[in-house]
């Protein structure tokens, strides 16, 4: 096949010796030594290089959560959009030219980023630096997606239209199968064009030949040390390749910033660690700002990963990453730990769950040797308080909260009895990076009235009480609707047991209050934004101007100290549905070690604690809740279907009447399933 392709391209002067001479002339002559644009493809060192882009400006609507690499944003595609020879040969030539020019400019930037280093020396010795070879793999994969019409970016519509038109003209179809067949015929030639461009600057012909042979498509067809072949890597979904590229870059750059903090905050700089403007202070801020930005980027990616992995037509690449048997979803970091090149994503061990200041990958401690609070404040960051050292909650005064709430309802406020809606999957109701989520009916009716009031949130003590009261009222009201649908639940509660189904509701609710506190709730509703603003305002006022401790650090420490009180407020609200007993007997529930903040778990083996579950991204918790709700509803719907078709048999008694009844039941079930398929976050 390889010989046939080379022969054909030589005849057509598209790739053979004449075409390689053309590539060389294009790259060396038109660029004038790497200084000027080649066919409108500019040097990548011109101007500032873009950052990762996760916004709808770059990503197609159906691919929300993906992040486009800077490399891909600068991809050279101009010849693919405007070539005039609309034939198979012309398309091949355009791909080869773009891939070659792209590789040439990538190499120039790579050398500059390395400040010379040993990059040129390695290439002159016949070795492509491993990091740059990785960039070539990513680039080759992006050109493949362009050819197959699978690129998930919004910035190449003109290229897609051109390629589609050419395929329609030359093969009478632009179907994926036809495109894939064409790519398989020319992929080796396109890769060889990339090698040709890379080796242009080499003066020793023997070294050029060595590189082209060692890194030929044929040689890279085989996996190496569990690293996929060039062909297999290019076939991965573009989103996953980009996420791998993101992960490898993040861990690499994070390590550099860690090392910088370690250098700047030790030795001669150690005496003035926390003074504004010091080397240590600047290094800490640089590290903090970087990981906080990257945490937001990864949140969208891991949400998309879970959604795609558990989708109806999931790509085979996701086959090992579907939900686990206990209902726990595997996150994107688990994929990165497995699929990144030789441990290059090892810093992603904790994924989105590593949210405390001293945990990877987004924690604030930059280095084990840097013994300063959250990198900047000068004192150690406290860990979770042991249960016996936590402050005891105020006296449970649920009657007072209920009376206050009734008065607030009377003036148009307060928290009303529950009347749930359907799941809300409308993208307009979410922040841009969280679109694609579905909000539970429970969460839509969350009791947050007190948290929106100035008088109830004007200082830390009042803010804490507003969270406790809101959580207590939410639980109290949620039980009222739960017991209507679960008759046995009342007996369980009277015996001092929280029904498992309601305990799960309490876990989901506690997690949502935590997201409200930390400002990570996905909703863009104005009341949610009001709560975020009020929380931040109170905490910002507590940070002295000379203290460089960040808002997130202060909030984290507060939650470690008081989060358990919010949970205990929820137990308080629930306990007031235990009737005809004394207050001291209600404490059997509120003070039970079985339901204590530090030990309570879901039922089942290896289940997370309340604290662990609440730390999970809201998207994943809601997806878990959706699964719970779907399975429960489906059981009831199947029962209705069975009852509707009971007694219907062909040629049986009252056949037409029973048939009509069964068809009605089938139509009702089908409609319900279609709605769930359309509205779900899966």
TrEMBL record:
Q: What is the lineage of its organism?
A: Eukaryota, Sar, Alveolata, Apicomplexa, Aconoidasida
Q: What's the protein called, per UniProt?
A: Duffy-antigen binding domain-containing protein
| Coiled coil regions, renumbered to chain | none
Cellular component terms per the entry's GO annotation: membrane
A molecular function annotated in GO for this UniProt entry is: host cell surface receptor binding
Pinpoint the Duffy-antigen binding domain residues.
65-233, 436-590
